[in-house]
Each structure stands twice: as C-alpha cells, then as structure tokens.
Amino acid sequence: MADNNLQPLLEVKDLSMHFVNGKRRKQSIVKAVDHVSFDIYPGETFGMVGESGCGKTTCGRTIIRLYDPTGGQIFYKGVEISGKMTREKRKFITENIAMVFQDPIASLNPRMTVQEIIGEGLKIRGMEDPAEREKVVVDMLERVGLQKEHATRYPHEFSGGQRQRIGIARALVVKPSMIIADEPVSALDVSVQAQVINLLNDLKEEFGLTIMFIAHNLSVVKYFCDRIAVMYFGKLVELATSDELFAHPCHPYTRALLSAIPLPDPVSEKTRVRLSYEPPKNRDESLLSYHTVAEGHTVLCTDEEFEEIMKNY
Ligand SMILES: Nc1ncnc2c1ncn2[C@@H]1O[C@H](COP(=O)(O)OP(=O)(O)OP(=O)(O)O)[C@@H](O)[C@H]1O
Ligand SMILES: [Mg+2]
Predict the structure, then answer these.
(1) Which of 74, 204, 212, 297 lies 20 to 30 Å from 222, alpha-carbon distance?
(2) Nearest to 117, CA basis, from 107, 128, 125
(3) Whose CA is nearest to atom 11 of ligand 1?
C-alpha cells in the first residue's frame, strides 16, 4: 500500500505527448497526453483507466521514453528521465522500468523462441553464458505458470493467456523495480483475467514491484489498484484512492465509467442505468483546473463545477 510520507518512485509532471498527423496543409495535432501530472509511490499499484484512444498507452510509452515528450518532465527515483536521451539514461530506464505491452501477439517476435524472447533482456544486460541464461529463463517461465518445455516453442503455439504470461516473464526477467502493464488482461477470458491478475499480485509481493496498471474499465482495477487515475481525451480528469473513487466519483466521466460496470445481481442489473458523458459544448478549456475534493482526491473542472461537486459530495 502507498505510504505518502515516502518519496515518489515515479513523478510525472505536466507531461504532454502531442502527435502531428498528416502532411503540411492537412496537418492535425493529436493531444494524446495533455498536461498530465501524477506520482507513483514505491510498492503501489497505480491504475490508469479510460476509453480507447484516451492516451493510456501513449502515457506508458512516453514514460519509458519510446516517445520524446512534447512537454513536461518525468523523474524516476528522483532522477530526471525526460530531456535529452543519453546512454546512461537509457540504461537507467531499462534497468528500472519494464513494460508489458498491450498486444501480446504483436509484441512477441514470431521468429524467436520463447527462450530467445525472454533471454534477450538478459543478453543485453551482459549475461553472456547461454546455459546461465537458459536457467534463468526456465525459472522465470515456471514462476509465471509455464513449463520448461515451452522455452523452445514459438509465440503462435500459445493461447492468449499464455502469451501474456510470456510478456510478463520477459518484463520481469531483468528484475525491474517497476512494471507498466498495458491492458494485460483485456484480451483474455474473464477466468483467465483473474489468473493473470493473481499472478501479477504474487509477483508484485515476491519481487517488491511497483505497478502501473492500464485498463479500459474500472471493474478490473477496483480490487487490484491502490489509486486510480481516470483519463479522458488526453487529460487526467480524476485521481483518487480506489475506495474513494468508488465511494465518491466526482467527474461525470468517472460516473459514466462506473455506470458501465455490470452488476452481479440480475435484478439490479436489469434496472442499471448506463450514463454517458458529453463534455459541455463550447466550454472554455482555460477555465479548467485541478481541484482537491478530499485528501488525495483531485478532479479537473471549472470553479463553478467544483462548487456543485462539493455540494453533493
Ligand atoms: N505514434 C502515433 N502517431 C500518431 N498518433 C498516435 C500515435 N500513437 C497514438 N496516437 C493517437 O493518440 C491517441 C491516444 O492513443 P493511445 O494508443 O495512447 O490510446 P489508448 O488509451 O491506449 O487506447 P486503447 O484503449 O485503445 O489502447 C489516439 O488518438 C491515437 O490515434
Ligand atoms: Mg492502449
């Protein structure tokens, strides 16, 4: 659980990642991540949710510097990892933060065996001896619930859940201090989702990991995450502990996401009302700022909206 007296492990400050699409006259700018700030504390599981295209993957990829941020700063263990890339910085990032990629099919090279895929990171880190690498890979495979025999097989020979386990093994084999798990379970059946989440939880304890967990909907993150950030069109619109967010969702978009969670009881499920969120038309974006609703609970809104929120809190 997060302890707020601790120094944050990861600090994301006013981060922006804008993409320019198209050529010259037909250029358009996609503000995939727009002035986003949050901290992640050691040992915490931090959830990031929001609908498709709201910028979750871009945020993760920018943190590990697969993209050059167009604005803002990122610090890890107090060291700036944004700004001009250097060899030391790259080494520091890869040693500390590993990403489990969203698409387990596209992110695993089809021409490499599982042994090669998982062992690659060890090789980069200077583990030259193939026998030593093999041993570490087999240990890791067993740790994520796969078998020794799987090491010589290729990604297409595995199910979705197994591929996700390979992705997790690849991320963890280099013993990072943090992993960014990008929708590690959304492509899986519900029963397999629970298995992969339990696995992540166990590994978190065992390796003393900090996790940033990206997901589409709130039901998956509710029990797994200590705190949750809700993203909407590149903006972080609400941030709170998991319990607080479910008890007092303040942003209308968070409420809409909550209303989308199916209820286990068929009677109440029948009467469940799904809310949808439409941002107010012609709203002056410059009037939006972060307001503190309760300790550690912030919401992006106008002053007027904040007054309304506090009346109903
Ligand atoms: N490399 C890129 N070049 C241009 N635009 C991009 C690039 N990557 C992402 N985008 C755009 O940025 C926005 C955010 O995309 P992103 O993949 O981060 O969303 P997401 O929240 O991860 O969505 P999903 O839930 O579908 O995975 C989208 O509009 C997307 O089209
Ligand atoms: Mg994504």
Answers:
(1) 74
(2) 107
(3) 32
Domain ranges of the chain: 10-241
Residue 47 CA, ligand 2 centroid: distance in Å? 13
b/e code 179-200 from CB counts within 10 Å (16+ = b): bbbbbbbebbeeebbebbbebb
Beta pairing class for 210-215 and 45-49: parallel
List helix spans (H) across 71-210: 87-96, 114-124, 130-143, 160-172, 190-207
**Å from CA of 66 to ligand 1 middle:** 13
* 95-138 pLDDT per residue, tens: 999 999 887 778 899 999 999 999 999 998 889 999 999 999 99
Tokens, residue 176 = 């990072």
pLDDT higher than 60, residue 1 = no
Q: Which of 19, 34, 49, 212 to mutate to test the pocket of ligand 1 (most atoms within 8 A of CB)?
A: 19
Cβ atoms of residues 41 and 4 within 8 Å: yes
Q: CA 246, CA 250: separation in Å to the nearest integer?
A: 10
Residue nearest to atom 25 of ligand 1 (CA): 52
How many Cβ atoms sit within 10 Å of the Cβ of residue 261?
Answer: 15
CATH code of domain 10-241: 3.40.50.300
Contact at 8 Å (CB) between 101 and 82?
no
> Over the chain, what is the mean pLDDT?
92
Amino acid 3: pLDDT: 52
Q: In this structure, how many other beta carbons lie within 10 angstroms of the beta carbon of residue 244?
A: 19
Handedness of CA 104, 82, 122, 42 (dihedral sign): negative
Arithmetic mean of pLDDT, 202-214: 93
From the CA of 58, give the closest atom in ligand 1.
18
For residue 188, pLDDT over 80 is answered with: no
Token couple for 191: 């029963």
Angle, helices 190-207 vs 160-172, to 10°: value is 10
How far is residue 186's CA from residue 172's CA, in Å, rounded to a whole number?
20
